[in-house]
Fold this sequence. Notes:
The chain has three helices and nine strands. The protein is mainly beta. It has one domain (2-106): Aromatic compound dioxygenase (Protocatechuate 3,4-Dioxygenase, subunit A, Sandwich), CATH 2.60.130.10. The strands form two sheets. The chain has a six-stranded mixed beta sheet with strand order 3-2-5-6-7-8, with no helix packed on it.
Amino acid sequence: MSGRVLDGAGEPVPDALVETWHPDAGFGRCPTDDGGRWEIVTRKAPHLAVSLFCRGLLDRVVTRIYFGDEDEENARDPVLRALPDDAARATLIAQPTDGGYTLDLVLQGERETVFFDLRTHSR
């Protein structure tokens, strides 16, 4: 699983930390490089839980990553179904690549990744 962490202007965030977790594979953690790129090797699961830490955030932000070649599984997921539209859902869907999957995590703006409020268990 790989991608970039981007700010609201589409610029890379070079000092972020991406952490993924799921019960079958434990967790992975990766700092971003100067281009905002990150990469974590993990087992495929219905989804990955993701925490993102970086300068300017008072607390971590939390999201999920789903897999673009798992349409049936994704259609059954209650969290994805609860999102308001396809554009919001698309921010959580990693696309298959030759080396695995890729998804950019966008902190703000028009293409902002859906992040979840842990206090209310909602978006």
